[in-house]
Amino acid sequence: MTLSSYPEKSISYLYEVGMHGGIRRAADALGVNASAISRQLAQLERALQLPLLERRGRNVVLTDAGKLLAEDYALTSQRRRQLERQLQDMRHMRGGSVTLRVGQGMADEVIRHVIAEFSQAYPAVFVNIQSGDMQTTLTLLAKGEVDMAVSFGPSGPPGLRCNSFRRGPICAVVPPSHPLAALDKVTLSQLAEHRLIGMDEQFGLQRYLNAMFRSEGLIFTPACSCNLFTSAVSLALAGQGVAFMTPQTLRSIHDCDRLVAIPLDHRIARESQCQLLHSADHRMTPAAHYLWRLLNSYFARSANGLPA
């Protein structure tokens, strides 16, 4: 088998297994069957006549041959992504591009207060704004497929540059007719007596809520759950439960004036944070550096209660 005939799909599976430390974890991340990955890697080992994986305890690690293939795949993929971005720039006849991942609850204010200013300074730069779950965001940052990200939740993992800003308070959101609406603040024990609206587990907000309830020996048990803040607002307006979000997120949603936000009486709610993230290994363009500075400036002002 020559180098040019190596099956790229099989090598991509090998790379993911090395990244995630196991075939099943790689399969979960890719959304494929673990048996399909095992079969492809077994065929690759037979074709190369070399072992590519070895088991160490409960984990699977790459052999020296496996590492060589995975490293070559990573470098080749990085070069291809760079080429794709350059071609995209040429297609759009732009002076470059910037890709930003933003947590759903912060997209509106970032666009209004940051992207508008950025586009005035770099009108020729193509701006790609994405939203999605935190795990995918971290993976894309590590792979260099996005320049930076804005997320709500605890600090990012090692290997990422992370700037944290105060974002609280987290509030209970209800219509004015709700029994909680007249309170200045609400405790978790009071919340536990009402129907609650949860968010998908990948939301930083939900991780904060789970941590708060655990700290007081309670279990967050929602009556319903959703993966859009607009859906949470609609559910609250329909009397289906208590929604949760920061005042900044609520202000960005239509019908926000028909709801009341009551701060949660808990340290974690008061000290919640948002994070600006980018890979320490990813070289940013001058335009991306400028956007990074704008984001830091905006969230610093917001954390201190200063005008945008």
From TrEMBL:
InterPro entries: HTH-type_LysR_regulators (IPR050950), LysR_HTH_N (IPR000847), LysR_subst-bd (IPR005119), WH-like_DNA-bd_sf (IPR036388), WH_DNA-bd_sf (IPR036390). Pfam families: HTH_1, LysR_substrate. Coiled coil: none annotated. The keyword Nucleotide-binding does not apply. It comes from the Bacteria. The keyword Transcription regulation applies. Residues 1-63 form the HTH lysR-type domain. Keywords: DNA-binding, Transcription, Transcription regulation. Belongs to the LysR transcriptional regulatory family. This is LysR family transcriptional regulator.
